[in-house]
Amino acid sequence: MESNGKPGHPLPSAAQAGEGLCPRCGGLMVMEYYLDLEDDTGQIGITGLRCTSCGEVIDPVILQNRLNPTPDLSHGVKKRKYAQRIEPSASEGQGRNDQGQDRQLDD
């Protein structure tokens, strides 16, 4: 299989894209070569498949992101158990116990 500028980045095959059919609309997928001049990885040329009907583009990065999506961080954020530490001011000692440690907030 041809490489896509770097080893380990194979071109998307017709089998990966549903036998040459667009996964979005079922249209014909054609191979296209794109130039990305603002890519910070040093890879300028990208080869991918484009649907002639709806314009869907599939390349190795898109396929990888669809297989391994990033976790949704908004559903896993835990509530703080302790108050946020702030710099001492004129009212020093406020919000601390006798040992100078932050007190736990009530839930």
Helix-strand blueprint:
Layout lengths: L28 E7 L9 E7 L5 E2 L1 H8 L40
Antiparallel strand pairs: 1-2, 2-3
Number of helices: 1
Question: Mind telling me the CATH class of the domain at 12-68?
Answer: Alpha Beta
Largest sheet: 3 strands, antiparallel
CATH topology (fold) name of the domain at 12-68: Ubiquitin-like (UB roll)
Strand % is: 5-15%
Shape: elongated
Shape-level CATH architecture of the domain at 12-68? Roll
Number of extended strands = 3
Helix vs. strand class: mainly beta
Radius of gyration: 26 Å
Q: What's the helical proportion of residues?
A: under 10%
Q: What can be said about this structure in brief?
A:
The protein has a domain at 12-68: Ubiquitin-like (UB roll) (Roll). It contains 1 helix and 3 strands.
List keywords for this structure.
3-stranded antiparallel β-sheet; mainly beta; elongated; 3 strands; 107 residues; Ubiquitin-like (UB roll)
Describe the structure.
The protein is mostly beta strands and 107 residues long. The chain has a domain at 12-68: Ubiquitin-like (UB roll) (Roll), CATH 3.10.20. Helix content is 7%, strand content 15%. The protein has one helix and three strands. A three-stranded antiparallel sheet has the order 1-2-3. A hairpin with a 5-residue loop joins strand 2 and strand 3 (57-58). The longest helix has 8 residues, at 60-67. The protein is elongated, with a radius of gyration of 26 Å.
